[in-house]
Amino acid sequence: MSSKPLYYSHPACLEHDPRVHMPGHPDTPERLEAIERTLAAEDWLEWERREAPAAQEAQLELIHSPRQVREIRELSLAGGGAIDPDTFVGEPSYRAALHAAGGACEMAKALMAREATLGFCGVRPSGHHAEPDRAMGFCLFNNVAVAAEHAIRELGARRVFILDWDVHHGNGTAEAFRTRADVLFASIHQSGIYPGTGALSDVGSGPGEGYTINLPVPAGSEEELWLSLIEHIVLPAAQAFAPDLVLISAGFDAHREDPLAGCRLETDSFAEMTRHVRDFAGGLDLPLGVVLEGGYEPASLADSVRETMRALAGSEPARSAAPDAMLTSRAAAQIGHYWPL
Ligand SMILES: [Zn+2]
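Above: query sequence and zinc ion SMILES. Below: predicted holo structure tokens.
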């Protein structure tokens, strides 16, 4: 048994390189290299490092269609090619994607077994845009969705809460659980950018109505608004949902230095968001696992990951943010229809 937080990674995740097909593509191995160099310089913050195993295809098929899994495997084995104008598969990509999803599953397994209460998966390619039947947006398989479903079907979790703070809407995760009441999915994202989904009015459907929380924010949004939404909308809903596992789809592309979007979070903003989620999970004695998504400026990405991990394992109290007058009240009216806020 280990009480140290767990960090999952695998060298295969450094091999996936979309620049082979599209020079200048922002999803570079340097993103992960910068994270690993930064953490290594500080002895991995004394976290326990574990190797991310390859996912079984049956695990991927908890979320994805067998056809999608087969097509990506075959494209990769054939040397690779384009899936869409943003999304590329190379010869090493299938293996990288297996270890990315496998790391998330293995983290969920260790957390559900209470080998640790905190985990971080430093893996790529990222996953939150990958829909059950479609790879897109740099994502091949939906790592966090596969891990959540693995936890529910095979690890005894009854309800999983997923917070997606990547600056882009986590459309793939939303679609995977759109009609489900056993996964609460909350996404904060910049409105008007890729992939264009995630309107406040989209709350899930059928038995899943109310179990999708979409909080689009305007370009230029700063820490105060993001914190306000987490503190006053997302976490009260999660509290009422009463999950037994908390996962964060953690993109760091809402950072002000990020080239792909226009939000203005600081490095410490991610730590501040983390403290809120950590205190929520800790208060209910819930395990909390983080899965890397986007973040395309390597230096600020690496610093933000380090500060997120520090905040996860730290005890500095979260700073309360004032409810944002306009957006929080508009969101509260929508989400408050389903959850006591
Ligand atoms: Zn993103």
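Residues 93-112 form the longest helix (20 residues).
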